[in-house]
Amino acid sequence: MLYVENWAPEYGAPIEHDPALAPSESIIDVSIETATWEPRRPDASAADSIEAMCFVDGVRRVDARLTLDEPEGPISGLCGSLGVGATHWDRTIPRATFGNVLIERLAVVGSGRVVEVPAAGNLRYEPVSVAGEDPAELIRYFHGRMRKAEAELSSQLAAEGHLVIADGPVYETKPQTVIGFIKTHRVNYLPLEETETVRQLTAGTRTPLFLMDGVMFQKYSWYLKLADIPGGHTWSGVVRCEVAASLGIEQATFYADVAALLLPQTAPPLHVDPRAPQNLVPIGALERELRRNLGDPGLVYRALRESIGQSTNGAA
Amino acid sequence: MSVGRVVGTEKTSTQVFRVVLDEAEYLQLDDLVVVRTQVPQAGEIATYGIVTESEAVYEGASYESDTFRIAEHGILPAQKVRSAQIQVTRVDPEVWVSPDPGELVERASGEARDKALYADEMGRPLPVGIGRDNQPLYVDLDFFDGRKGGHMSISGISGVATKTSFALFFLRMLTGRRDIVGESGVNMRVLVFNVKGEDLLWLDKPNALFDDEARQKWEALGVEPTPFPSVAFWAPPRRKSGDVLLPDVAGRQEGVQPFAWTPREFIDEGLLRFLFTDAGDSRNQLSFVEERVRSQLQRWAVDIVGRPGAVVIRQPPIGGWKRGAEVKLEPGERVIEDLPSLVAALEEYLDPPDGEEPDRAWSGRVQGGTVSAFMRRLYAAQSRLGELIRAGDSNRIDRGKAQVTVVAIQSLHDLAQRFVVGALLQETFAEKEQTGQRLPLSVVVLDELNKYAPREGNSPLKDMLIDIAQRGRSLGVLLVGAQQTASRIAQEVMENAAIRVAGRLDAAEAERSEYGWMLPSTRARARLLKPGTMVISQPAIPVPLVVNFPFPPWATRREEVSEDVDPFSGL
After folding, report:
1. How far apart are the CA of B73 and the nearest CA of chain A, in angstroms?
2. CA of A96: which chain B residue's CA is closest?
3. Pairing with A167, which of A87, A138, B114, B494 sits 20 to 30 Å away (CA)?
4. DSSP class of residue B283?
């Protein structure tokens, strides 16, 4: 059967197969929570003890592309800004607020070169270098820094006692209260029989937990349906969540139930977000807020041209 | 004390800007604010303004349904932002630059408030009500009493707009604040027509419902809250009251004097023309006949020995009757002692029996039909005017008797009302024309002005009101006119009113150009104004003010009259 995805096309699709990923992660055990695989609807009171939740996310933006004109040939680099932060959802009032916003600006140059970028107004770019010459490598490094900042913020908030919903997979062995929230399915981890359970999910239900083998550590994962999409296929509105296996099966089950109960409440209706319902309202709002904090791209670009142009002309 | 800052997401201008408010502050409509901006080379410029709209929004919400995500589910972070629109009233010193974004906005109080309202530039600021901040608001008296402008026009829906109440409140300020009014207040005379009910017949009685809250407001305005100290009440004589004239009023008898004109006064002052005040009368040639008859009467009428006020129509000797001449009545002559006898006398010349031609000396060269129409008007008038014309001792209204003269014409037919208004306005105006002096002032309060000076048609009364509107300012005759709809009033009368006031307006009426002086936001609000709230425009301030005026200390109905007079006082 054929369907049209409900994400706006420029955002890709919630299902994008990437066979390259398949060998790195694999299912170890699908029977750790229950032997019988069928959709599970948690008891509504399961989330009562959760008074607050933090949604952590990051954004990045290339402010300007740089070229270092050297005798041996041009070397590419970039100036980029990244921001991470959290939306604190206080369920008691209820109110949501932004917090822990951190903005970093990097001047990344390839071929192992470190270049000091003159301050553009009050914008200061941290000089860093990557070994390769491929421009894609600059972006990978830049993206990695954002992921690192997100992970640090998630750990920090979890250490402060919050339940954290982090955008993307969990890369942590510590038993911390961080639920990785994966919007895009690149690989189907489940065998055919268990996949059928995913196809049977309805809004607010989840699959049983399964144990997954990460690159360096193990984690518990589950599929969860955020919303029933009219005219959608069986995987529409389905996301995958994961926690570090070190939390233990009991904790993991508890958080799986909490996620199945609370995350559908924060899912936007289709018309509100181009990546609805997977791009949760607190995360979508946080992205907008972080982008705003990065500053106006036009103004930043102009300031960079001015400051770098002045120093280059001054030297020449 | 700052309430917020000038909004920087949109351009400010010398006309309008917006303020984003501090969490713990608010601004409401009509509040006054000041912003101080450092202008290069010019130094500090203060921009004064008035709040014309108040707004609030969730910043960060892009869909209306986001409101639920923010306020009910709490999953969407957002910032509640409250702001206010400001209309600039003044820039001081006069360097016309817009206020800087981000500048602190303060409530204008004390000296700043006076500046925002131009009170510091007013020659004689007279309080005309209380603002939202419970402080008095002012009009520049120079624009009412004729120095720089004159007259006041009050518009609003009947019943809820409290037009008459405001007019009286204004008069009380005028008579109560001698310290501000100054020489203009000396011997000032006020003529008020009571056209509906008997609301104005209790101006000298304390109001039993007057309370402390109202008292405080009056004190803030600087006037001792007492009824009008000097009022005389006049009413037309009751019909068929015999030899003794009794005033035609229902609620109040004591202190109300009957008034009437004698045939002598009627003829001398040419009051005949005020019997032809219907706007349609000017279209035909009635006025030619009326003019002719009026001047003919003035030449032919002569007093009768022993019959004060009455006249007889007799061919004058060469050179005319001497002023004050009296003749003995001859047999067969008709004594003119009231309107019916005057009409009967005129009938002999204009509508003779047996189909004879009218006397050309009286009718002029007009068609017979016109003369008949003239007579028909007179026949109709004789019953409508009732006892207003009668011989005997003079009972005319003495406007010098008290500061405020209330003339109760509510019981009269429209035609008779117009007659009385016309006669009294003419008298007032003629008096001032003779002296040519602006002082002492003569103030006339006239409700339902649209009856007397309608936009369409012509009448001697309308002509006179236009004359008063145009020349009255320099002669010290000041009109306080009230009407439901300014669009129904002769334009010349409206244009000459320096001070314009509106109470609650009909929504369609508020959109008319006559109310162009209001801000769009005030206009939108004009149909929601509560009784006791008025919008005032005056030449001295570029924006209209919204004022509250306090409950009156005088009674407006018989039931309100406070009669708790201590019978033993003074013992």
Report:
1. 6
2. B77
3. A138
4. G
Q: Which pLDDT score is estimated for B241?
A: 64
Does B76 lie at the interface with A, CB-CB under 8 angstroms? yes
Residue-wise pLDDT tens digits, B429-470: 888 888 888 888 899 999 988 888 888 888 888 888 999 999
* pLDDT exceeds cutoff 90 at B18: yes
Tell me what the mean pLDDT of segment B57-82 comes to: 91
DSSP state of B4: E
Distance from chain centroid for Cα B227: 19
What pTM value is reported for the model? 0.77
Residues 6 or more apart from B55 whose CB is under 8 A from it? B82, B83, B84, B85
Tell me the sheet residues that pair with B500: B153, B537
Both tokens of B348, joined, read 């002999």
Residue A159, in any domain of the structure: yes
Query: Across the interface, which of B63, B73, B78 has its CB nearest the CB of A94?
Result: B73
A313 is a domain residue? no
pLDDT at residue B281 in the model: 66
Chain A residues lying within 8 Å of B72, measured CB to CB: 94
Please report residues of B whose CB lies closer than 8 A to that of A280.
75
Which residue's entry shows tokens 């959760």?
Answer: A50
% chain A with pLDDT above 90:
62
Is A90 in Cβ contact with B70 (below 8 Å)?
A: no
Q: What is the ipTM of this complex?
A: 0.81
Domains assigned to chain B: 2-116 (2.40.30), 130-254+402-541 (3.40.50.300), 263-388 (no CATH)
pLDDT of residue A23: 46
Find the range with the poorest average confidence among B229-243, B409-423, B552-566: B552-566
Chain B residues with CB under 8 Å of A98 CB are: 77
Spatial strand order in the sheet of A238-244 = A26-29, A210-213, A218-225, A238-244, A178-182, A163-167, A52-70, A73-90, A95-109, A126-129
Distances A191 to A196, B85, B166 between C-alpha atoms, Å: 9, 64, 87
Chain A partners of B69 at a C-beta cutoff of 8 Å?
A: 268, 281
Residue A17 lies in a domain: yes
- Tell me which of A55, A92, A100, A266 to substitute to probe the interface with B (most B C-beta atoms closer than 10 Å): A266
Looking at mean pLDDT, say which of A228-232, A286-290, B504-508 comes out highest.
Answer: A286-290
Please give the residue range of the domain that contains residue A156.
9-308
Using a CB–CB cutoff of 8 Å, tell me whether A201 touches chain B: no
- Residue B566 in this model has a pLDDT that exceeds 60: no
Q: How many domains does chain A have?
A: 1
Q: Does A1 map to a domain?
A: no
